[in-house]
Amino acid sequence: xxxxxxxxxxxxxxxxxxxxxxxxxxxxxxxxxxxxxxxxxxxxxxxxxxxxxxxxxxxxxxxxxxxxxxxxxxxxxxxxxxxxxxxxxxxxxxxxxxxxxxxxxxxxxxxxxxxxxxxxxxxxxxxxxxxxxxxxxxxxxxxxxxxxxxxxxxxxxxxxxxxxxxxxxxxxxxxxxxxxxxxxxxxxxxxxxxxxxxxxxxxxxxxxxxxxxxxxxxxxxxxxxxxxxxxxxxxxxxxxxxxxxxxxxxxxxxxxxxxxxxxxxxxxxxxxxxx
Amino acid sequence: xxxxxxxxxxxxxxxxxxxxxxxxxxxxxxxxxxxxxxxxxxxxxxxxxxxxxxxxxxxxxxxxxxxxxxxxxxxxxxxxxxxxxxxxxxxxxxxxxxxxxxxxxxxxxxxxxxxxxxxxxxxxxxxxxxxxxxxxxxxxxxxxxxxxxxxxxxxxxxxxxxxxxxxxxxxxxxxxxxxxxxxxxxxxxxxxxxxxxxxxxxxxxxxxxxxxxxxxxxxxxxxxxxxxxxxxxxxxxxxxxxxxxxxxxxxxxxxxxxxxxxxxxxxxxxxxxxx
Lengths: 275, 275
Prior knowledge:
2 copies of one chain form a homodimer.
Chain A: H1 4-19, H2 27-34, H3 38-55, E1 59-63, E2 69-73, H4 78-92, E3 98-99, E4 103-104, H5 107-110, H6 113-127, E5 134-138, H7 143-153, E6 157-160, E7 171-178, E8 183-190, E9 199-207, H8 211-221, E10 226-236, E11 248-257, E12 262-267, H9 269-273
Parallel strand pairs in A: 5-6, 5-9, 9-10, 10-11
Antiparallel strand pairs in A: 1-2, 3-4, 7-8, 11-12
Helix pairs in contact in A: 1-3, 4-6, 6-7
């Protein structure tokens, strides 16, 4: 086998890049780990950049200069995103997911690491151009998806909770009207969890009328955060009037028909118009 | 550059393997995606297995036969685990983490995708030999770590919640005595979330007296689950008597000295005795 040293380096560099998504790695990181010259590493990275691009494995960006380095972005094409969402819709249509009362059981998908990773990369691809600095979610079911979105964007995740804890220091709280059950709830975020004026994206698993996101916007306003995007996994078509605008959902849930054992879901048509 | 086709395949195969940790991928997955012959793919995988082993990138296992394939396990050596935990201790010792009341602020680390991934791979390495089938955690702060542990083990994550929801169907609930605040709490798991008799590992972020894990064990007994391991990120040394046995923590928290601005933490010496 010719040039095995080079093959070894390419494999190891691929592993290092994938283990640090959206993170700027200085060239020195590779020269030290691999015991290779800077020129060799540069050549290898140029080659990897081409292979990743031509095979649709994501994007490798290189930045010149002293503060430079290389960054791997696990970005998916619009077609790639749509095919993941279509696969998800097939799974959601299973009549076994229908619960008494016409609810749809999604908890297994929400907490599946594999689905969270796929869907997190989808949201990362949709929002990365808006240059967010922090990903925000609300406990509990938003966390896996938001964590994987944050991972794919190389960003920290901040989780809003229903109650503040003594173990997290001074906190800001707001009350909100949950659209799903017409109940007043409260949400809270420790002061130190989010720097003032940060550019944030909101990621959550489900939206009915949008009351939870509305509350999150109110809470984030207390931190002077700039909300540059809101991503929702599953949006109920009813009610059509939401209390928030400017959000993007992946899946539209039209109806859970308990009598006929039918779940009507489809990919958000806005996904098809992109790209 | 010699044999570029082979280099391309090796890079793409590395990407596919890393994107599906602990998942059995049939050889056909690679022959189709890469348009390569089965013998070529087999040869490449044998080479990758060697490179991964010799460079400490994790373990590649191949399984022969019709139902066979290849599996990538992101396993870390005992030294690798210890060095991650030592780095974490350095971070935890920062006096700025001390909150009024002598609490230690860890939320940023808990919700950091990068730390969750590193620590999840550590727990996966420590528990994979016990052949768990499901990873279990308790909302909220256990989720990122447990999700990443589940990802590294190729397993589903099941999250116990404080209250049951109508949207998740029939549920089993237990009450428990929280050791931290001497309060009675409740925890609940939907019937359909966990098959009867599953082999599970419990992953949580923090343990004081162990009341929460004790409650989880009681709840899991209702599902006839076999708990084959319990992993805790940070364990308080006080009180020395815990209400559970058979758990493994990564970090021991001895003291948060508010007056002298000192945090006393260290890697669990049990980690050093392994391997």
